[in-house]
Specification:
Mean pLDDT of chain A: 93
Order of helices and strands of chain A: HEHEHHEHEHEHEHEHEHHEHHHE
Number of strands of chain A: 10
Oligomer: homodimer
Shape of chain A: globular
Structural class of chain A: alpha/beta
Number of helices of chain A: 14
Largest interface: A-B, 24 and 24 residues
Radius of gyration of chain A: 19 Å
Largest sheet of chain A: 6 strands, mixed
Helix content of chain A: 40-55%
Chain lengths: 328, 328
């Protein structure tokens, strides 16, 4: 039996339009290179350069600001009067809170009771109202729906929304302007918002895209292999930003425009996270380290076609007081 | 009884000459600003901007590369054939090793047996020869002298050398080009090489300079107060780059050209180090955090004359696997 093929719902032009809305609001983040990392990437004598797009230096410390801001910009004024709502324990919570504040809109952020105090403080610091829920997806969604009903607030989805995807794509749009001649871009995959936006831009420039996924949350890799969307159940990874399943808007883009998904074991992610921070002096979160590890994986480095490799560092919100390694 | 007043032995022109030698060899490091930090600095309603000169992104991860490279450039070829030698357990060891390698010169680095393996590996990675010694200043100096005698190598002092001071000043030279209208520059003080080079540049541009010193190693503050060089005995601070006493070349500059020394308790340094890393996603070492803490101290912020404040982040070689705080 054939599955019906769902169409792609976002276009390159949506990313360009999002970039216009984000101008002067999001940071145009810098691109980093590092001699030690380039040497490590050139191990089989093929000279390679790896370029890192520093979304760890984006507002709220992650690319999520881009998508949230773009989506909120497009809410009609009559609706925006009633505010926005989302559920998240991570970067999307801060992104929606910050973007809503810039629009003068109220924000309700549904957060699990188990969320770290530092994350709650950051969200509250943007003036958002935090609503507690149980740490289950079911209760998060139920609580968000209740807030929608009570307030009329508009839901801002963390990834499965064409405007969110278009916003995330603006990082890649800047990247290809900042670095000429990229032949591959690697982005981490959780729900797929970042890699989807990236793929729209990369396709326009004939650049390959690889999704970087934790081995313990490999729904995208399995979905690609199966040719149909497979949901993630009981993910196990330190990359806490990459636990989610793909969605109805991100899956068709990943299916059609992402070349392949490479999975990374947590032990490798941890080693590369430490290597990256020690060499570059930039803090990245585990989700970013999954993409760094992918760039330095055999699967990538055995392909001589890829010489100028772009990596999107998704964010830097690691809890530096408990990094996942013990002292050497 | 009057002390004889020792003269200043380095001039602004020496810094400019050093910049010429370092062009294309040292990184022109970027300048960082951060919204949260500016808000914290503007707490009494006076708007302030703090600019961070990122020597944590310099080669070897610290400003020390500048001075070492400049000093080695000026060793006559006949002497340089015999190599260079220094004693250091920290950034200067890597700086001399890297700068010597770029000159094709041999380097002997005397390191205490207690130096961290990661530091030894870094030095060895530049092709330098590591010579073990006991972890005392006396044995370090004695061992370095022995190597000099045996090999004819030239000693590269970590700070008390006019060419080293001139090299360190090039960070400030770039800083004043990168940020117009600075009215204060803050640099950490250990042996005083960085703050001395900075002061030569700042004087030329009529910019105030403050030295940032750990309260547990406050020889510069006491020397300034006494009007004469007082040696540091039994320093106690986590800022392991700032343990040293001033020297005969750095003291006259600090005496005459540095406006004041502000001392910082380690507890404040640790808090600001964490705040800085969390907000900026840049790793800095404790010595740098002493300067960050000084910029946000009451002594600085109660002075309304200082609105555009430059801070030199001396380096980023913190051992990220054992940062000095426990989890929150």
């Amino acid at each position: 039996m054939m599955e019906p093929t769902s169409p792609i719902t976002v276009r390159f032009a949506d990313v360009v339009a999002a970039a216009g809305r984000l101008a002067g609001k999001a940071h145009r983040t810098p691109v980093l290179t590092n001699r030690s990392i380039n040497e490590r990437a050139s191990r089989d004598v093929t000279p390679r350069e790896i370029f890192f797009k520093c979304e760890n230096l984006q507002r709220v410390g992650a690319f999520k600001f881009r998508g949230a801001f773009n989506a909120i910009s497009l809410i009609p004024a009559d609706d925006l009067r009633h505010g926005v709502v989302t559920h998240s324990s991570g970067n999307h919570a801060q992104a929606v809170a910050a973007a809503a504040a810039l629009h003068g809109a109220a924000a309700w952020i549904v957060m699990p009771r188990t969320a770290l105090p530092v994350k709650r403080q950051a969200v509250a610091g943007y003036g958002a109202t935090i609503i507690d829920c149980e740490p289950t997806l079911a209760d998060r969604e139920k609580t968000a729906r209740r807030i929608q009903d009570e307030t009329g607030a508009t839901l801002v989805h963390p990834f499965d929304d064409p405007y969110v995807i278009a916003g995330q794509g603006t990082a890649a749009l800047e990247f290809v302007e900042q670095v000429r001649g990229l032949d591959l871009i690697i982005a981490p995959i959780g729900g797929g918002g970042l890699v989807s936006g990236t793929a729209l831009v990369a396709r326009h420039h004939n650049i390959d895209v690889i999704g970087a996924e934790p081995a313990g949350a490999d729904d995208a890799a399995r979905s690609k292999a199966a040719g149909q969307l497979i949901e993630q159940t009981s993910p196990q990874t330190i990359a806490d930003g990459l636990l989610t399943s793909l969605g109805g808007h991100t899956w068709p883009i990943i299916r059609d425009l992402v070349r392949e998904i490479i999975t990374v074991e947590d032990s490798v992610t941890i080693e590369l996270m430490r290597f990256f921070i020690e060499r570059t002096k930039h803090v990245i979160e585990p989700s970013s380290a999954v993409a760094v590890a992918t760039a330095l994986s055999d699967q990538v480095l055995f392909n001589n076609r890829w010489r100028r490799i772009g990596v999107i560092l998704s964010g830097g919100n690691a809890n530096i007081a408990s990094l996942p390694w013990s002292d050497s």
